[in-house]
Amino acid sequence: MMHYCINMDGLEEIEAALGKAKDKSKYVLRAAINDSAKEVANRMMKGAGSRYARNDRGMKPYRPVTKIDKAKIGRLAAIIDVRDKSSDLYEYKLSDRTYYPGSKGAPKWIKAKQLRSGSLKRIAARPGNAGDKYKGFVVKYHSGHLAIAERVPGTSMRGHPEKEAIRSLYATSKPKAEETVFKHTIDPEMYDLLMRNIQSELVRFL
Fold first, then answer.
1. For the chain, which residues score pLDDT lower than 50?
2. For the chain, which has fewer Cβ within 10 Å, the N-terminal or C-terminal residue?
3. CA–CA separation, 176 vs 164, rounded Å?
4. What are the Cα distances from residue 92, in Å, to 46, 86, 132, 156?
C-alpha cells in the first residue's frame, strides 16, 4: 500500500485573481486539487503499465486497486491510496510459461524480465552455476494456479521430506511500480499540473 498526498498551502494568489469573489478561493483550490489527483492516479497507472513488461496474453489488465480520498474545504489535500497484492513473476514476460509435469520436456532455463526496456535473464537462485538445481521453473499448484517457483536450499517439503520445499517468485508490486513512475515522471511536474488546474477552475468560477 502506498499513499500520495497532493496539497497547496497558499491561497493569496487565488484570492487576488478572484477579486470580490475571493471567499470562493478554497472551493477553487479544492476542485483543482481533486482534478490533479485524478490525473495523477491515471498517469501512474498508465505509466506503470507502459514501464513494466507484464505479459499481454492471458493476464488480467494492469488495474491496481486505487482509491482517491478527495480534498475537502476543511482539508485542502487529496490522498491517492494505491494498494494491491504482490504480482506473481509469472504475470511478466517469460521465455517459456508452459507447465511441464515432472519437468519432462522443460527448457534448461526459464528467462524473465520485469521492465519492457530490459532483457530476459535467467531465473536462478545461484546464477553463476550452470548446473544449478535451484533454477526457476513453472509450477502448477493443486488449485490450478500457475507460478514461477524455485527450490529453497536446506528445507524440506511437507509430506515429502526427501524433497526441498518450493516458493513462488514475485515481481515488483503494483504500488511500488506506481511509486517509481510517480517519482521519476510525475513528481517533478506536480506544481505545474496543479497550477494549470487552478487556472482552469478560476476561469470556470469567473
1. none
2. N
3. 31
4. 16, 12, 23, 28
Q: What's the pLDDT score for residue 169?
A: 92
- Determine phi and psi for 192, rounding to 5 degrees: -65, -40
Buried b (16+ CB within 10 A) or exposed e, 35-70: bbbebbbebbbebbbebbbbeeeeeeebebebebee
Cell numbers that stand for 14 in this block: 487565488
Show me where the domains of the chain are located. 2-85+173-205, 88-171
Q: What is the CA radius of gyration of the chain?
A: 24
Which residue, among 127, 132, 122, 116, has the nearest Cα to 172 in the 3D structure? 116
pLDDT at 202: 83
Report how far residue 51's alpha carbon sits from residue 38's, in angstroms, rounded to the nearest whole number. 20
| C-alpha cell, 20 | 470580490
Beta strands in the chain (DSSP E): 2-7, 65-69, 77-83, 93-94, 111-113, 121-122, 137-140, 146-151, 166-168
